[in-house]
Write a structure and sequence with these properties.
Strand order of the largest sheet: 1-2-3
Largest sheet: 3 strands, antiparallel
Number of strands: 8
Strand content: 5-15%
Structural class: mainly alpha
């Protein structure tokens, strides 16, 4: 039985190699050559070779166990989801965490609950994209949830490799529905008949473009009637006050009709600065169900039943701004859109910009033709006069 070590060049680097000759108890002679891992000296390589010699004498099974790296079991999607959701509730907005929980419970766990988080690949994302029973927008949200979970698993150590890139689907362009000026005026009149608070609710959506959660979280301290400003600095979800969507804090000018309604509301129902603008008759804060019920009633009274929920007022706000020729960047700031692509959905209602562009193009072409005609006529007359002088 001998153990010899020598240096060997492997991938351009000098490494120690152990050459072991062992005669087993059965009489069989075995030769084993291995690169010594992490050996910095001859003595270290010899120690490693002698320990391996002992394993060879004990039997092949022990050597096989020593050579094979132990594969740590990674948790499945189902067992890892509670840990991911705790992380979401601690770091994300409550509404975002609830969306992740719904996507996991309804879609991901029933389909991939037994798949280990370390085994997810791009093919799983392609499988989700093939779920025709749900809309493209929902599929993108499911992909976002799965991507966030795999990223957290990689950072937490439950996944050894970087997560795959799960690209979102291209959603078809859907132009949002909105109320015309006549329909909107009729809606305001019906809201005023229902009550002053309902009218204020409708105006906050149609005159300021507030989201439903932003309207519920609006406090009197954020309304400056003297300066004509309204500050959007909070949002409400299931009774929890959070920051606005995408953290887009913004200040809006108050329209005359909205300012008049808010003054009347403050005069009729005196409140403190920290109180909410929209409250029930008994002073309690309103809920999403309260808003939906009042909105459905007003839509039915105005003959607009089935035309959407409170969010259609926000679409109406953006659509009327675009039709009035307001630049897209200003609409984006007023609406609090995180990306200009969200605002582009309304710009088909701004025909003036394209009409003016075509008019300017036509004018430029007419002027070019006039100049070209004058030059041609001048050159023709010059050639005629030259011909007469020669004759």
């Amino acid at each position: 039985m001998t153990v010899k070590v020598r240096q060997k060049k492997v991938h351009g680097k000098l490494r120690w190699e152990a050459d072991i000759h062992v005669k087993l108890p059965c009489g069989k002679t075995v030769r084993d050559r291995k690169i010594v891992p992490n050996a910095q000296s001859r003595q270290a390589a010899l120690r490693w070779g002698r320990s391996r010699e002992v394993l060879l004498i004990r039997g092949d099974q022990d050597v096989r166990r020593a050579d094979t790296p132990r594969k740590e079991a990674t948790p499945t999607l189902k067992t890892f989801s509670p840990q991911f959701l705790r992380h979401c509730r601690a770091t994300l907005k409550p509404s975002t965490a609830a969306n992740h929980e719904t996507n996991l419970r309804v879609h991901l766990i029933p389909a991939f609950g037994n798949v280990h988080v370390g085994d997810f690949e791009r093919r799983h994302g392609l499988t989700i994209k093939g779920w025709d029973q749900v809309s493209p927008g929902t599929r993108n949200k499911i992909l976002a949830t799965l991507g966030s979970l795999l990223t957290f698993a990689y950072e937490f150590g439950a996944r050894k490799t970087a997560p795959p890139t799960l690209r979102h689907m291209r959603k078809p362009l859907v132009r949002p529905d909105y109320f015309t000026h006549v329909e909107y005026d009729r809606l305001i009149a019906c809201a005023a008949e229902t009550g002053l608070r309902v009218k204020a609710m409708v105006l906050l959506g149609g005159e300021a473009g507030l989201r439903a959660g932003e309207a519920r979280a609006l406090r009197w301290r954020s309304v400056e009637l003297a300066r004509g400003d309204l500050h959007v600095d909070a949002s409400e979800w299931n009774g929890i006050i959070t920051e606005p969507k995408s953290k887009r804090y913004r200040t809006l000018p108050i329209s005359d009709e909205l300012a008049e309604c808010l003054r009347e509301l403050a005069r009729r129902y005196p409140s403190k600065p920290r109180d909410f603008v929209l409250v029930r008759d008994d002073g309690r804060s309103i809920s999403a169900r309260w808003m939906a019920a009042r909105m459905t009633k007003v839509l039915g009274t105005a003959g607009l039943h089935g035309r959407g929920r409170f969010h259609i007022l926000r679409h109406t706000f953006c659509s009327h701004l675009a039709a009035a020729g307001v630049p897209i960047r200003e609409i984006q700031e007023l609406a609090g859109h995180s990306r200009v692509e969200h605002t582009e959905r309304y710009m088909h209602l701004a025909p003036d910009a394209t009409s003016n562009a075509i008019a300017r193009l036509s004018t430029a072409r007419r002027q070019a033709r006039l100049v070209t005609g004058d030059v041609a006529e001048t050159s023709f007359r010059s050639s005629e006069s030259g011909a007469k002088s020669k004759s």
